[in-house]
Each structure stands twice: as C-alpha cells, then as structure tokens.
C-alpha cells in the first residue's frame, strides 16, 4: 500500500507572483474525481475524524496553515502544512483529522471519488479493527 507523504509541486517564481499546479496521475498518484475545500474554520475547531475505505486524498494549504494528523492503526503522524507549493498525499484507510487552522486558512482537497457516505469509517475503534483484519 502507498504511504502518506509530502509531495512538492512545481513552482514558477516570477516578479508578477508565483504559480503552482497539480496534474492528475503525474504530481499526484491518482485521477481527480472531486475537489472540495475547507475555509472559515473558527479557532480551535477540528475537521475530519474519519477514514475512507477506498478514497485517496491530496491536501494543500492554499492559504494559511493547519496540521493534518494521520493514524495508520498503529502510530500517529502529524504534518504541518503551510505552503501552497506542496501537499500531503493520504492513501486510503488512514484515520485523518485536520486541526490548528490559522485565521483565513484554506485547505484544498483533491480526491479520486465522488462523495459517498458509504466510503466513511467514522468510529476510530472500527477503523483499527478493520486495519488489523478483525
Ligand atoms: P464532513 O464529512 O462532516 O466534513 P469533515 O470531514 O471535513 O469534517 O462533511 C460536512 C458535510 O458536507 C456533510 O454533510 C457531507 C457534506 N459533503 C458533501 O456533500 N460533499 C463532499 O464532497 C464533502 C467532503 C462533504
């Protein structure tokens, strides 16, 4: 199974400003079927708190900063995202939460499937049991 990892994106620096981009199956290892974004998060709030059975994600801090906390069923990993020229690849079956949103932060999330409630595992203990084949 693919591992979570930070992926650097192309970055064109210019006197007129900077530009970055993402191509499916090139910079990220999946085809993009859906994009959503999380914004105007009140201080101290957390998002996520679930895993996906099949969906993969790529998360970019387009503006501001936040932490993505992943759990693979054994250990927890924390990634601080605060630049728009890299992002975090999250494979399927990872518990993930997003927290520590800065004021005006904008989290862009690309994923390889349509929204489907049946894709979600929302109970951590169920996720861990599933990971360990119980
Ligand atoms: P939710 O899963 O609670 O967000 P988060 O995982 O960030 O805490 O989603 C909030 C609401 O938005 C929920 O009613 C489902 C809906 N939603 C969609 O309709 N389409 C989507 O692509 C996403 C991500 C959520």
Gist of the model:
Pfam families: FdtA. The chain has 134 residues and is mainly beta. It contains one helix and twelve strands.
Which keywords apply here?
five-stranded antiparallel β-sheet; RmlC-like_jellyroll; 134 residues; QdtA_cupin_dom; binds thymidine-5'-diphosphate
Structural notes for this entry:
This protein has one helix spanning 124-131; strands at 5-8, 11-12, 19-20, 34-39, 47-52, 57-63, 66-71, 76-81, 86-90, 95-99, 106-111, 120-121. By secondary structure, the chain is mainly beta. It starts with a strand and ends with a helix. The model has no long low-confidence stretch (mean pLDDT 97). Thymidine-5'-diphosphate binds at residues 34, 36, 38, 47-48, 50, 115. The site of thymidine-5'-diphosphate has 7 residues, from strand 4 and strand 5.
Query: What structural category do the secondary elements indicate?
Result: mainly beta
Shape: globular
Q: Helix share of residues?
A: under 10%
**How many DSSP helices?**
1
Regions with little confidence, pLDDT below 50 for 5+ residues: none
The Cα radius of gyration reads 15 Å
Estimated share of beta-strand residues: 35-45%
Pfam families: FdtA
Domain Sugar 3,4-ketoisomerase QdtA cupin: 5-131
Protein name: WxcM-like domain-containing protein
